[in-house]
Specification:
The complex is a heterodimer of chains A (351) and B (280). Chain A is an alpha+beta fold. Chain A folds into two domains: 225 residues, Rossmann fold (3-Layer(aba) Sandwich); 110 residues, Beta Barrel (OB fold (Dihydrolipoamide Acetyltransferase, E2P)). Chain A is built from eight helices and 19 strands. In chain A, helix 2 packs across helix 3, helix 2 runs parallel beside helix 4 and helix 3 packs across helix 4. By secondary structure, chain B is mainly α. Chain B has a two-stranded antiparallel sheet with strand order 1-2. The longest helix of chain B has 32 residues. Classes of the chains: A alpha+beta (351), B mainly alpha (280). At the A-B interface, strand 6 and helix 2 of A face helix 6 of B. The complex binds adenosine-5'-triphosphate and magnesium ion. Magnesium ion binds next to helix 1 of chain A. Adenosine-5'-triphosphate (ATP) binds next to strand 2 and helix 1 of chain A.
Chain lengths: 351, 280
């Protein structure tokens, strides 16, 4: 079911958290709300499920206006960051609770719980209590409980934040699988860009209560609208160099680096600019030679990550296949791909 | 679960135990004699009893002249303590939840009010309460004194309950609401079970204070039909001319036994009031 936020605003007392947000999630789509801590992701999510009432604006499920509908009648499933399992109930009772409050018949509940438990692979744990489960198992119980009512909308608030790295990887694909299988519309809140990119159809990047850009993961990675978006996506992150415009080219602070860019044709000289270069576009071939000194090297197994300090002190990051011929302190001359570089105006807008 | 106390190995506990034993010896002796004196005769001036007797316990099977029947009094005490417990548990568990979670108007005022009421010495009110009860016709009735005692104990109960509700994670309630449960169902099925140990503890606590309450029943319900054990006990020595210490002690033991039994069985729950742990 489609979710539409129309001019949604939310303030707590005098603090405005969200102002005039417009967001549409298509039916069956999984959307990531990505942003730094405190930008209002959870607030948005809680407004969608009815825990927070919007200060103004409308929320629509399909064509139905649910703005003033209490949580109980919205038919949403929510997985909280802390899972919020009911500690005094067994796994079976936990999962069956949404059906129990609907006064479904006991045998019917049992059957449905068994079915959904099989779907999330916890059918052998039904008699346990939440305190007797591992983090990943608790997570699955929370998912099962959110799904059992066949909700119109599934909301996930940083569901993987409490898991260890390996389990996180596993649950990432697991949640995506469940979402695909059930065809449910889902919103995933996260501040982990890898999670957002790998799990979701589209990403909405938020910054202090506003959506900066909505796009598919690859579109957003290759075509960021602002330096904030470019800096948020990508691991290892993009590196930025400050400089100015000069005759259709970007010139770094001390004039050492000069990158001609088509986007700069109409820009007057001496306009302050920021150049963004992703690590994979430096040191692996390109059209512009850059000289610098290695200040940091780190191996990630398959690849090596190098920090290269330019003469003016700014740092470019490079990621390339493992090689053993370079160590910190070495002077290097590597190529930079100017057609893959991003150029941003002083206010962060991409040119 | 609370952590098991670790035996501390870096100092010997023997001297401490010895000292404690020495200091509590008089107490132990007194308790021992409280019991021994009820089943024996001791010559004047001696400490050693010389004769076994059940004479002092005769109040159990023959009603003393001018006194109500002991079983009626015990029943009254039981009703008194139980009703207080019921009232306190019902009101405190709901009021505590409201003060902890719901955004009611004047919440801060209520919180402060509860605090002040708890600190207020209730004895200063007793004359006023006496007049009010007499005016509305509840003087010398169990209902009247139950209401008064429950009202006086409620602030502490509400405050304790609020504290325990505060420890229940907020997400659990939100999860319940999103799962489709009404606020009342959430409270009843999800939140209340989390603080069950605290409810048990408060219940016991209320029962015990009710069982041992003296001043309020003495002033507000002294009549023979509604007497409770503490008042009955006091009436045994109020008469200067013929008091009977043997019977007084026997009634005292009779009065304290239920308390001891409760303690033995439920001390773990009672500890919860101070521990605050509610994990299942
Ligand atoms: N009940 C509240 N009262 C006042 N301010 C609040 C309340 N809830 C949230 N805020 C404020 O709203 C802003 C957004 O909070 P929110 O919980 O939505 O952040 P978030 O994006 O989910 O961050 P995180 O990633 O840390 O969970 C924060 O600055 C927070 O201080
Ligand atoms: Mg959050």
């Amino acid at each position: 079911m489609r979710i539409l936020l129309d001019k949604f605003s939310k303030s707590f007392g005098s603090t405005k958290v969200i102002e005039d947000m417009n967001l549409e999630v298509a039916s069956g789509e999984m959307l990531a709300l990505l942003g730094p801590s405190g930008c209002g992701k959870s607030t948005t999510l809680f407004a969608v499920c009815g825990i927070h009432r919007p200060t103004s604006g409308r929320i629509l499920f399909g064509d139905r206006d649910v703005t003033n509908l209490p949580s109980q009648e919205r038919n949403v499933g929510v997985v909280f960051q802390s899972y919020a399992l009911y500690p005094h109930m067994t796994v079976e009772e936990n999962i069956g609770f949404p059906l129990m409050v609907k006064r479904a018949a006991a045998p019917d509940i049992k059957k449905q719980v068994a079915a959904i438990a099989a779907l999330v692979h916890i059918d052998n744990l039904l008699d346990r209590r939440p305190s007797q489960l591992s983090g990943g198992q608790q997570q699955r119980v929370a998912l099962a409980r959110a799904l059992i009512r066949r909700p119109d909308v599934l909301l996930l608030d940083e569901p993987l934040a409490n898991l260890d790295a390996k389990l996180r990887l596993e649950m990432r694909s697991e949640i995506r699988r469940l979402q695909r299988e059930t065809g449910i519309t889902a919103i995933l809140v996260t501040h982990d860009q890898v999670e957002a990119m790998s799990m979701c159809d589209r990403i909405a990047i938020m910054k202090s209560g506003e959506i900066v850009q909505i796009a598919t993961p690859s579109a957003m990675y290759n075509d960021p609208r602002t330096s904030f978006v470019a800096g948020f996506l990508g691991n290892p992150p993009i590196s930025f160099i400050k400089g100015t415009a000069f005759q259709g080219a970007f010139v770094s602070g001390d004039g050492h680096l000069k990158v001609p860019l088509a986007a700069l044709s109409g820009i007057s000289d001496d306009t302050p600019l920021t150049l963004g270069v992703r690590p994979e576009h430096f040191g692996t071939g390109g059209d512009i030679a850059v000289e610098g000194r290695i200040v940091f090297a780190e191996t990630q197994g398959r690849e090596n990550l190098y920090d290269v300090a330019l003469p003016d002190g700014s740092v470019l990051r490079s990621i390339q296949p493992v090689r053993n011929d370079i160590k910190p302190g070495d002077q290097v001359r590597w190529m930079l791909g100017s057609d893959a570089a991003f150029i941003f105006a002083e206010n962060g807008q991409r040119l | 679960m609370a952590e098991k106390p670790q035996p501390s190995a870096n100092f010997s506990s023997l001297p401490v135990i010895l000292l404690l034993t020495l200091f509590s010896l008089p107490l132990v002796l007194m308790y021992a004699y409280l019991f021994i004196d009820t089943i024996s005769e001791t010559p004047v001036g001696s400490l050693i009893p010389n004769e076994f007797t059940l004479r002092h316990w005769s109040f159990l099977w023959q009603t003393k002249t001018g006194k109500p029947n002991i079983w009626l009094v015990t029943l009254n005490t039981f009703i008194f303590a139980s009703c207080i417990t019921a009232v306190i548990l019902t009101v405190a568990s709901m009021a505590g939840y409201v003060l902890s979670r719901l955004n009611v108007p004047a919440r801060g005022f209520f919180l402060a009010g509860v605090m002040v009421l708890h600190a207020f010495p209730s004895v200063t009110l007793i004359i006023a309460i006496f007049i009010v009860l007499q005016y509305i016709g509840l003087y010398n009735s169990l209902i009247g004194v139950i209401l008064v005692k429950a009202a006086i104990d409620l602030p502490l109960g509400i405050w304790l309950m609020k504290g325990f509700y505060d420890t229940v994670p907020w997400e659990i309630e939100m999860a319940g609401i999103v799962d489709g449960a009404s606020r009342f169902t959430v409270w009843r099925r999800l939140v209340l079970p989390q603080i069950k140990p605290a409810v048990m503890a408060l219940g016991l606590f209320s029962f015990l204070t009710g069982w041992s309450e003296f001043i309020l029943p003495q002033v507000l319900a002294p009549g023979a039909q509604v007497q409770v054990l503490s008042v009955y006990l006091a009436s045994l020595i109020i008469d200067d001319n013929n008091f009977d210490f043997g019977t007084f002690k026997a009634v005292g033991v009779f009065y304290v036994v239920p308390v001891l039994i409760l303690y033995v069985f439920f001390q773990k729950h009672l500890m919860n009031i101070y521990g605050g742990g509610t994990k299942g």
